[in-house]
Design brief:
- This protein is α/β, with parallel strands linked by helices and 317 residues long.
- The protein has 2 domains: 154 residues, no CATH class; 162 residues, no CATH class.
- It contains 11 helices and 7 strands.
- Strands 1-2-6-7-5-4-3 form a 7-stranded mixed beta sheet, covered by helices on one side.
- A hairpin with a 3-residue loop joins β3 and β4.
- α5 packs across α8.
- The longest helix is centred in the first third of the chain and has 23 residues.
Length: 317
């Protein structure tokens, strides 16, 4: 995903753009098509609106309704997951444009404006198979919108992309984990030192290591303290500019370097759940707040983790 921030006369437009296929789209071609999409006659420009979303060009009215209602469901359940409560309705609907096809890489573009503490002007374009749009693209894009509504300012790329990726389908997340192991190999060394990672406001020339690492770091911090502690940590660090102090306050590590070493050990051990350092009151549950209506039963199939072929090395350079 590619986020560009344009500042003009006190306002900022944020473009959240997946300009490349999802990791899963690189590795496999989805063969799933929603049954009703196969059976129904395709009628262009089908529309459907809910309180906060309007799908404007779905191939069928039934799919327009499904995508709009899924977007509302994601908005509600992901807000509860990350924030602990539902969000107020937006002042205007987010228009969603969609392209559905089994051969399309899954991805999305979401634009919005930051203006003096307000965020508005939502527009989204999404593409992919019907299944992947429902279980990965919509949750991903709507997580960007939830974080923008919460912080009301641009946030670091690793956090924005990592959080959005963390709610995708299990198969997509497993692909990111596998690629991360390759990036962290001693002969590849594409991992980002944490002090550089937290400072990135734009994407590096090769963004995929940032995607994979950002997702893994978010996953690790959620395992340590839950979703809301992660957002509190980020808010404190962004406000003060002192990430080391925020690490000590929220995760009981001396500094970013110590956090990075602990994360590398966690990845080397297979990204297994760790004992939480947060009190129960700040840990969000459930970890998986929704299940795609298309993917019912598929989430029970957990891909085997790819074993480490070479030891990981700390990536502070």
């Amino acid at each position: 995903m590619d986020a560009r921030f344009l500042f003009r006369c006190g306002w900022c437009m944020s473009v959240i753009f997946l300009g490349i296929p999802s990791m899963g789209a690189w590795l496999e071609t989805a063969h799933y098509v929603a049954p009703h999409v196969e059976r129904l006659e395709v009628r262009s420009e089908a529309r459907f609106a809910t309180t906060n979303f309007e799908v404007v060009n779905a191939p069928t009215p039934e799919l327009a309704k499904l995508l709009c209602e899924t977007a509302e469901r994601c908005r509600k359940e992901l807000a509860i997951l990350w924030l602990g409560h539902e969000m107020p309705d937006w002042a205007a609907r987010c228009q969603i444009r969609v392209q559905v096809g089994n051969t399309l890489g899954a991805g999305g573009v979401t634009t919005f404006v930051f203006d003096n503490g307000e965020v508005y002007g939502w527009e989204m374009s999404i593409q992919g198979s019907a299944k992947r749009i429902v279980d990965s693209v919509l949750p991903h894009e709507i997580t960007h919108m939830i974080l923008a509504t919460h912080f009301r300012r641009p946030i670091p790329r690793w956090l924005d992309e990592g959080a959005a990726t963390s709610v995708e389908h299990a198969s997509e997340k497993e692909n990111y984990r596998r690629h991360l192991l390759q990036y962290l190999r001693e002969d590849v060394r594409k991992g980002l030192p944490f002090n550089r990672m937290v400072a990135l406001k734009e994407y590096p020339p090769d963004p995929m290591p940032l995607y994979s690492q950002g997702f893994s770091v978010v996953e690790y911090l959620i395992a340590l303290g839950g979703h809301r502690r992660l957002l509190e940590f980020a808010a404190t660090a962004m406000e003060s500019g002192n990430w080391n102090a925020a690490v000590r306050q929220y995760y009981d590590k001396e500094n970013l370097g110590a956090l990075q070493l602990a994360w590398v050990d966690w990845v080397a051990a297979g990204s297994k759940t760790v004992a939480t350092t947060a009190p129960p009151s700040v840990i969000a549950t459930p970890q998986s707040p929704y299940t795609s209506v298309y993917a019912a039963g598929l989430d029970q199939l957990t891909p085997n983790k790819m074993p480490l072929r070479e030891p990981l090395k700390p990536i502070i350079r």
